[in-house]
Amino acid sequence: MLLQLVFAYTPAYADPPDYRTSGVQEQIAQYLCTPPASTGEPGNPNGVNLYQCINKLYKFAIIFASVVGVFFIVIAGYIYMGSEGNQESVEKAKSILISTVTSLVILLSAYVLLKAINPDLIQFHDITLPAVTSGTTDGPAIGSGPTGDICKSNVTNKCSNSACNKYDSQIAAAAQKISIPGVNKPALIKAVMTNESSCDPAAVSGSSPPSIGLMQLKVQTAQNNQSGCTTDTINDVWLKNPDNSAAIICIGAKYLEAISKTACGKSILNIAAGYNGGTTRSDGLKAACDQSADCSSDKSCDGTVPMKAWECTFADVNHTKEDPAFKETRNYAPQVYGCYQFYDILNPAK
């Protein structure tokens, strides 16, 4: 069994490297854990990721331990044969032999047992995001124009951004200060913050006036929702100050609660759309969650008729022209919804 294990996992080491036909870089790539090169960059295109590297090291460790075990068995035999009746040497040889054989039996038995139970127990695999999708509504296809189906959640790599985890306690505290029945409030707050700023407290948008900080709030919006969060005077500098993160997250949560009390309601998609596209307009144009005149007979993602303004991809009742007004929102809302579902799975607390 020992020989089978050794030969099973050492095919690459059977032949010595030919340095006449391959350079040092190729030999390193073959025998060591080297990361794959990025597209268009020099390096090893056949490199391995962290999990493949761990698998290599794990198998190599088993082989190395087996070889060391055989070496100690030989040493024990040498001591025994050279003892010439010396009882102390005989006992020492027996002790080395018993300890080595016991260790090898435990090592190989554990490997064989784990492999027999489930081969995945001896493999390290990439961590992948859970596949989270939401069902589509009945009736005409939502967003059947240029932007695709906007009612489905879109889980992106942003959702697993570890930089956001340090704010979990502040998010939980902010969630306690708002009420949105039926919604996982910490998941919603974190999903919005992740997509707004990637949890960078110094983030500033290019809009005028700019959206600033963790929750990408405009100064006026922050001032309108600061009650119960802070009594400070809020300005651009205050919103970028990481020392104010707890209050900023609280203000963002208050704003989400306020959106849920508008025409957007408690739908995650609509709350996200309201956060991104606005709930009121001073220029006479429709806000994100206003009823759409151009999709008046089409069903909304939440099942109501007509669609919300942000959902309608058309700029005319005949559906011949694309409406660019909420194009960003139609991309943004499904991404927030995706992260919301991702966080809701990880922490289903309401």
Could you characterize the architecture of this molecule?
With 350 residues, the chain is mainly α. It folds into two domains: 121 residues, no CATH class; 190 residues, Lysozyme, CATH 1.10.530. It is built from eleven helices and no strands. Helix 5 crosses helix 6 and helix 6 crosses helix 11. The chain is elongated, with a radius of gyration of 31 Å. About 10% of the residues have low confidence.
Give the helices and strands, then pairings.
Layout: H1 2-8, H2 24-31, H3 50-81, H4 87-117, H5 168-175, H6 185-197, H7 219-224, H8 236-240, H9 245-260, H10 268-277, H11 327-346
Q: Assign the CATH class of the largest domain.
A: Mainly Alpha
Work out the radius of gyration.
31 Å
Strand content: under 5%
Number of domains: 2
Assign an overall shape: elongated
Structural class: mainly alpha
Element string (H = helix, E = strand): HHHHHHHHHHH
Q: Tell me how many strands there are.
A: 0
**Which whole number gives the mean pLDDT?**
80
- In CATH, the topology of the largest domain is named Lysozyme
Second CATH tier, the architecture of the largest domain: Orthogonal Bundle
N→C terminal distance: 53 Å
Biggest sheet statistics: none
Number of helices: 11
Unreliable residue stretches: 5-14, 38-45, 131-148
Share in helix = 40-55%
